[in-house]
């Protein structure tokens, strides 16, 4: 009984901020100005904030920005991390433990500490301009750069995500790959498969559950990023949705109801991904927690 | 007179063609013809205009492209920026303007890396120390040629605000807003309050409001910067403009431990008892709400307080808003009638990869935004910002804006606000924002140690 009461209290405590955000987002700003936040809506609730965020805040466009950063980011990370994990677990060579430790240790580095050198690297790394893919009138994905630099480019954001997420993905995937018995790869070797073929046709299919779990996790990690896009993009219209929420603030006036609506809309995709891939998400939590 | 002006215009156009040729030696013969064509087109358009504007044409180029970095993200100011960009394109031979809009907070916080990275040709910024700082670092391009072409359209106060430490012009001021004491006309009429003329009147009024059940002075300092407005005006009234500027920039050996600063805090402590309860947790919008809901009697803030009134959606409330200049305190500096009136400007970057190509167009843009007609176009979208040009058409201003113009033009000295006049690291949360909150948590304290902390913090900052 006490346990139930405690659990209910905790649920209320955790859900309250979310409820408050939903409530604020449904109230027109004028209503809260006149009556305060701690009041019942005088003129009823409305979806006006959502409407404004969708049209003035151009939320759909920023979803697209996030998509072009996160999808290649997740795919590249999984490819690279599975290669490293494959080499370190399926082959015995002198440095495999050291390499694995290197990747795992990189995981512990707080990203903020390298921001100044990273900024200068991005400003001085030439990237070719090979045209662009245009979607609609506003969106344009440059291949690979529209200013000959890594700075202020989608590709730059994708790369830094790949760099920072590869460590964690390698750690998890290598633990999973250790459970694949050597006999399988050895028999593939006997059948004449080369190393790349073993990786692609034998090990990767066996790792499908791990890859699915990692993809779910990596999607949320990259989706949630606020920092890199803020520092490494100078164009407001290249931002992913999380950073773009800042665009809803003016010079002086901050309409918190509008921002609540925007934040809730920005929350939706990870929640949908979580609901759809719940199974993998839970699997991901325990993945690699036991060896062999 | 009209003829001589025409002649000057044509001369200027010829000069601009020379400039364009000199800047880009790789022009082909066809390009030269094109530029000449644009030039004569501009001359033709100017001639058709019949000299309606009194801003002379300058060292500029038409057609082509340029880029603009803008921090205007409020719905109104965003639309206003787009409107003047569109007007510029059609007025300047179809110059294509690439507009990059970044929200105000992020733009300010990342300005340093923005200007050192790959910035646009022109950008929106503030005058005051914040402008001089980046000019001195070589991150802005001087625009003396543009300024000398347009300066007849500005008062000398504006001219002083856009000069760098080296005496060169770096910016075109486009709009400003004053800080004053706001109140509701209906509340004051109902209670029979009068505008206080001096410090004692103000205190008596506060006491009366308190007994009437009002919060005498709305005060909201969650974000740290609003308190600096009160410091500014008290320091200006008590110690004068020169002392204030020296103090905020550390020039002429001015120290925070000066007894004159102590006097400011002493004076301030006389009215803090009339402030909103729990002000350290209130944003400025909450303070404005107290005024709007008739809970508070006065509010010392910028003209942007009217934004919150407008956001309430009730025009009746907006119409009740009025203000007066901060009362005199009985010092010899009262006569300066000084006040904070931050000025927003347009500047040219230095490190833009395209600036060399677009310099003529970018200068044409700066010249375009110096026109009263352009500024009025912007003001119609963003009414909180008042045009700076002498030739701006003031006939459409509402009463509140007219009054704002009046008190600013009556001021002998104008400051830009604490965080624009001092170095950013000193004005910020670790510096004066924090120190002022510390003072306000116990206003009757002996401020000697606090002032020592301020000076120590100033001394600990690296050279700019």
The residue ranges of chain B in which pLDDT falls below 50 over 5 or more consecutive positions are 1-58
Q: Give the biggest sheet of chain A.
A: 2 strands, antiparallel
Mean pLDDT over the residues of chain A: 88
Number of separate helices of chain A:
14
- Number of separate domains of chain B: 2
Name the assembly state: heterodimer
Class of secondary structure makeup of chain B: alpha/beta
CATH topology of chain A: MetI-like fold
Please, how many domains of chain A?
A: 1
CATH class term of chain A: Mainly Alpha
Total E-strand runs of chain A: 2
**SS element count, helices of chain B:** 22
Rg of chain B, Cα atoms, Å: 24 Å
N→C terminal distance of chain B: 49 Å
Bulk shape of chain B:
globular
If classified by CATH, what would the architecture of chain A be? Orthogonal Bundle
Q: What would CATH call the homologous superfamily of chain A?
A: MetI-like
Give the largest chain-chain interface (CB within 8 Å).
Answer: A-B, 29 and 37 residues
- Describe the global form of chain A: globular
Write the layout of secondary structure elements.
The complex is a heterodimer of chains A (292) and B (464).
Chain A: H1 2-25, H2 29-35, H3 48-55, H4 59-90, H5 96-106, H6 115-124, E1 129-135, E2 139-144, H7 154-177, H8 182-190, H9 195-206, H10 208-224, H11 227-232, H12 241-244, H13 256-276, H14 278-286
Antiparallel strand pairs in A: 1-2
Chain B: H1 2-23, H2 29-49, E1 65-70, H3 75-91, E2 96-101, H4 104-109, H5 111-116, E3 122-126, H6 129-136, H7 144-150, H8 156-161, E4 171-176, E5 179-184, H9 185-191, H10 199-211, E6 215-218, H11 226-249, H12 259-269, H13 284-292, E7 296-302, H14 305-311, H15 315-320, E8 321-324, E9 339-340, E10 343-348, H16 355-369, H17 372-381, E11 386-387, H18 399-410, E12 414-415, H19 418-421, H20 424-427, H21 432-441, H22 448-460
Parallel strand pairs in B: 1-2, 1-3, 6-7, 9-12
Antiparallel strand pairs in B: 3-10, 4-10, 4-11, 5-7, 5-8
Helix pairs in contact in B: 1-2, 1-16, 3-17, 7-16, 11-12
């Amino acid at each position: 009984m006490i346990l139930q009461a405690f659990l209910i209290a905790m649920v209320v405590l955790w859900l309250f901020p979310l409820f408050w955000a939903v409530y604020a987002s449904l109230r027109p700003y004028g209503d809260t100005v006149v009556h305060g936040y701690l009041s019942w809506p005088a003129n009823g609730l409305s979806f006006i904030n959502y409407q404004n965020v969708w049209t003035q805040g151009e939320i759909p466009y920023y979803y697209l920005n996030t998509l072009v950063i996160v999808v290649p980011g997740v795919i590249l990370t999984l490819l690279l991390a599975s290669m490293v994990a494959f080499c370190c677990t399926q082959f015995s060579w002198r440095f495999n433990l050291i390499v694995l430790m290197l990747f795992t240790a990189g995981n512990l580095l707080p990203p903020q500490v390298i921001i100044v050198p990273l900024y200068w690297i991005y400003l001085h790394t030439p990237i070719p301009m090979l045209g662009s893919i245009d979607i609609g009138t506003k969106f344009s994905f440059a291949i690979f750069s529209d200013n000959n630099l890594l700075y202020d480019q989608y590709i730059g954001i994708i790369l830094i995500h790949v760099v920072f997420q590869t460590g964690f993905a390698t750690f998890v995937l290598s633990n999973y790959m250790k459970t694949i018995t050597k006999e399988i790869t050895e028999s593939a070797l006997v059948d004449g498969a080369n190393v790349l073929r073993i990786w692609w046709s034998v090990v990767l299919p066996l790792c499908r559950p791990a890859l699915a779990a990692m993809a779910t996790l990596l999607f949320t990690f990259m989706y949630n990023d606020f920092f890199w896009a803020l520092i490494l993009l100078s164009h407001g219209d290249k931002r992913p949705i999380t950073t773009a929420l800042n665009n809803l603030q003016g010079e002086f006036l901050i309409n918190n109801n509008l921002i609540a609506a925007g934040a809730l809309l920005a929350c939706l995709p990870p929640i949908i991904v979580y609901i759809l891939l719940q199974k993998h998400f839970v699997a991901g939590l325990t993945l690699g927690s036991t060896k062999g | 007179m009209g003829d001589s002006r025409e002649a000057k215009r044509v001369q200027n156009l010829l000069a601009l063609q020379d400039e364009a040729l000199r800047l880009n030696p790789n022009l082909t013969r066809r390009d030269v013809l094109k530029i000449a064509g644009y030039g004569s087109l501009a001359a033709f358009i100017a001639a058709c205009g019949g000299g309606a504007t009194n801003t002379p044409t300058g060292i500029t180029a038409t057609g082509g492209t340029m880029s603009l970095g803008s921090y205007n993200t409020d719905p109104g100011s965003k639309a206003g920026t787009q409107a003047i960009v569109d007007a510029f394109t059609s007025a300047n031979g179809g110059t294509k303007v690439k507009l990059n809009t970044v929200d105000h907070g992020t733009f300010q916080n990342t300005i340093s890396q923005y200007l050192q990275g790959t910035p646009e040709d022109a950008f929106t910024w503030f005058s005051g120390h914040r402008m001089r700082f980046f000019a001195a670092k070589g991150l802005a391009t001087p625009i003396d040629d543009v300024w000398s072409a347009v300066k007849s359209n500005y008062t000398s106060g504006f001219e002083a605000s856009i000069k760098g430490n080296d005496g060169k012009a770096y910016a075109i001021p486009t709009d400003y807003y004053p800080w004053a004491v706001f109140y509701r006309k209906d509340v004051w009429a109902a209670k029979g309050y009068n505008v206080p003329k001096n410090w004692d009147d103000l205190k008596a009024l506060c006491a009366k409001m308190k007994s009437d059940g009002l919060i005498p002075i709305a005060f909201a300092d969650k974000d740290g910067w609003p308190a600096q407005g009160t410091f500014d005006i008290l320091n200006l009234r008590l110690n004068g403009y020169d002392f204030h500027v020296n103090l905020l920039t550390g020039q002429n050996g001015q120290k925070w431990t000066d007894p004159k600063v102590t006097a400011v805090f002493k004076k301030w402590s006389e009215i803090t008892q009339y402030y909103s309860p729990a002000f350290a947790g209130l944003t400025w919008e909450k303070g404005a709400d107290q005024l709007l809901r008739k809970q508070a009697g006065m509010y010392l803030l910028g003209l942007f307080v009217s934004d919150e009134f407008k956001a309430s959606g009730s025009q009746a409330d907006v119409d009740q808003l009025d203000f007066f200049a901060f009362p005199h305190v009985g010092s010899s500096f009262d006569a300066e009638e000084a006040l904070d009136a931050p000025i927003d400007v347009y500047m040219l970057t230095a490190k833009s990869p395209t600036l060399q190509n677009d310099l003529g167009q970018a200068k044409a843009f700066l010249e375009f935004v110096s026109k009263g007609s352009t500024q009025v176009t912007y003001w119609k979208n963003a009414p909180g910002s008042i045009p700076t040009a002498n030739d701006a058409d003031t006939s459409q201003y509402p009463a509140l804006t007219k009054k704002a113009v009046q008190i600013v033009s009556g001021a002998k000295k104008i400051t830009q606000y604490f965080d624009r006049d001092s170095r950013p690291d000193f004005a910020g949360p670790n510096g004066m924002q924090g120190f002022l909150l510390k003072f306000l948590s116990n206003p009757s304290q002996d401020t000697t140690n606090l002032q020592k902390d301020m000076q120590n913090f100033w001394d600990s900052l690296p050279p700019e």
